[in-house]
Structures are given as structure tokens and as C-alpha cells.
Design a protein that fits this description.
Elements lengths: L5 E3 L6 E8 L2 E6 L5 E2 L2 H4 L10 H5 L3 H22 L6 E5 L5 H8 L3 E5 L5 H9 L15 E7 L8 H9 L2 E12 L4 H11 L18 E2 L2 H10 L2 E9 L25 H14 L10 E8 L2
Parallel strand pairs: 5-6, 5-7, 7-8
Antiparallel strand pairs: 1-2, 2-3, 3-4, 4-9, 8-11, 10-11
Length: 299
């Protein structure tokens, strides 16, 4: 019976139990750190977005250059915050996609490198910005990276502690990781799931999880404990939502651009961006739409 299933948490190795179903698969919640996850066989399914960047690598980078023009002010504010944390300027962006953030950093004088598991991402970044991507972390000298950016990466990783330990090897002694993940405890998800739990024992949960794409769901507590388990100290942790001036403009498509209001139908505006607007009320309580954590190597 699914009600009696338990599993070991991939974040802190504590006991976890099934709390519901998302995208047709059982979701476990850790009793200790609150990490949400699928069982191992589901977490290790191959990604379903391998062709994500193909078109962008074939159009000469036009779309990515437009994205840089639009996102540059926000990326500059993020980089200004990072420049207060380290005097050195070596940046590695893992999950760099088309390299838009790296291009903004290079404009400010950072030495930049990118890496992405998607085979078309490096070609897109090369076409748009002539950026260099490493094919594997073994190409990076240990202890050479000052800032490591993981934007929307950890939720894709089946074993987050092992992954962060591997990332830790690339960092300078005072190096910093910036990790951005969807918030599984956002105000919208919390309200919807609270209602659904009252109706059935194992509800169909609203979560930022799906097999072959997002096998993990992070809460603020889960992100902090996973980071600690991997040998990091939390510098800061905040939740942000669409409309935050430093991270996501209103009607940002989550990847490349801000969508003009004229392109958004009323139904989409209410069903998709309405809940994200609600999450803005949850920011002060750690219940915004995304979590942004800054981590430093523990000594």
C-alpha cells in the first residue's frame, strides 16, 4: 500500500514518508529536513528537455542577445551583491543555459566559465556571446572558483548532497555558491495543498516537481540542511517572487524574456500569473515563489 511506503531522504538520510502524488508519482517528505522527493528510480529518470536550446543555437544568438538587453539591469544588481562577498572575480555558472548571466558578468570584468548538461547550450552561448563552456568539472582547477552559480539546478539533481560536495571541490577557500530553486513551500502551494489534504488522505499535490525534470522539491529548511550536509554554511536565504527587482521581472517566462502583457490571454493571466502574484505576500515569511541561498564553504 502506498500509505505505508517509506524511503531514505537524499538530503539528510532521515526517514521519509509518502504524503501525496504529483505528476502521477508518489512524493516523499523527509521527517527531519522537509525535503520533498520522488523515489530513486523516478529521480534518476533521464531529463526530458535535451533539445531545449537547439533552436537558440541555430539562430545566431539573436534571442539570447535580446534577453541580455532585457535582463542586464537585474543581473548587474545580483553581481553587485556578489562583488561585496569576494574580492576575486572567477565565476562558474553550472546550468548556464545560453550564457546570458555569464555575458553580463563578463561585461563587469569577471572571468567567466559555463557548464550545462544540455548538449545544445554551449553552442547557443558560443553563437550569442562567444562564451567558453567546459564539458566537465574535471577541466576546472580545484579551489579556483570564487563564485559558483546554480540557478534552477538543484531541483534537477537526484542526489543533491553528493552534487554539492562535488561543486565544493572547485571553490576557493572563501568561495561562495549562489543557489536558486523553486520554493515547494510557497504561499500558493501551501494554501492549495492544505485544502486538498482535508479532502483525501493522499492528495494530488501542487508542487514544482515532475518526473524526468524536477525530482526534488525544496523548502527553506530543506535547502539549509542539504547545504550543511554537503559542507556549507548558510550566509543568507530569502524567498522572491515575480516582480522582484533583483531577480525576476513581472511576466518573466522563467528562462529568457519578459512577456508583453499584450501577448498574455486573460485565462493565462489568472491561472498562471495570479498565483505567482499571491506568492509576493509570502516573501516575508519564506513563502515566495523561489528561494535564493548564498552558501560559503564551512571550515
Amino acid at each position: 500500500m502506498i500509505e505505508t511506503q517509506t524511503a531514505v531522504c537524499p538530503g539528510c538520510e532521515s526517514l521519509s514518508s509518502v504524503i501525496g502524488i504529483t505528476k502521477g508519482e508518489a512524493v516523499f517528505r523527509c521527517h527531519e529536513c522537509s525535503l520533498l522527493f520522488y523515489e530513486q528510480s523516478v529521480r534518476t529518470q533521464l531529463p526530458k528537455d535535451s533539445d531545449w536550446w537547439r533552436d537558440l543555437s541555430e539562430n545566431g544568438g539573436v534571442v539570447l542577445k535580446k534577453s541580455l538587453a532585457q535582463m542586464r539591469p537585474m543581473y548587474n544588481r545580483q553581481l553587485a551583491q556578489l562583488e561585496k562577498m569576494t574580492e576575486r572575480r572567477q565565476l562558474l555558472d553550472v546550468g548556464a543555459g545560453g550564457g546570458v548571466f555569464l555575458a553580463a558578468a563578463r561585461e563587469r570584468g569577471w572571468k567567466v566559465m559555463g557548464h550545462d548538461s544540455n548538449p545544445h547550450a554551449a553552442a547557443a552561448a558560443k553563437a550569442a556571446f562567444d562564451l567558453f563552456f567546459v564539458s566537465g568539472l574535471n577541466e576546472i582547477a580545484k579551489g579556483s572558483v570564487d563564485v559558483l552559480r546554480l540557478s534552477h539546478v538543484l531541483e534537477h539533481v537526484p542526489f543533491p548532497v553528493d552534487f554539492l560536495r562535488e561543486m565544493r571541490l572547485t571553490l576557493h577557500a572563501e568561495g561562495v555558491i549562489v543557489a536558486i530553486v523553486p520554493n515547494a513551500a510557497s504561499l500558493t502551494y501551501s494554501v492549495v495543498n492544505s485544502f486538498r489534504r482535508k479532502r483525501v488522505t493522499l492528495p494530488r499535490l501542487a508542487l514544482p516537481m515532475s518526473p524526468g525534470f524536477h525530482p526534488l522539491g525544496f523548502t527553506p529548511r530543506a535547502l539549509e540542511i542539504v547545504a550543511k550536509s554537503a559542507g556549507f554554511t548558510l550566509i543568507s536565504l530569502r524567498s522572491v517572487s515575480m516582480g522582484n527587482r533583483d531577480y525576476y521581472p513581472w511576466f518573466y517566462d522563467g528562462l529568457l524574456r519578459r512577456i508583453p502583457l499584450s501577448e498574455i490571454g486573460l485565462k493565462t493571466l489568472v491561472r498562471y500569473w495570479g498565483p505567482i502574484a499571491l506568492d509576493n505576500f509570502g516573501n516575508k515569511f519564506g513563502r515566495g515563489h523561489w528561494l535564493v541561498a548564498c552558501l560559503r564553504r564551512a571550515h
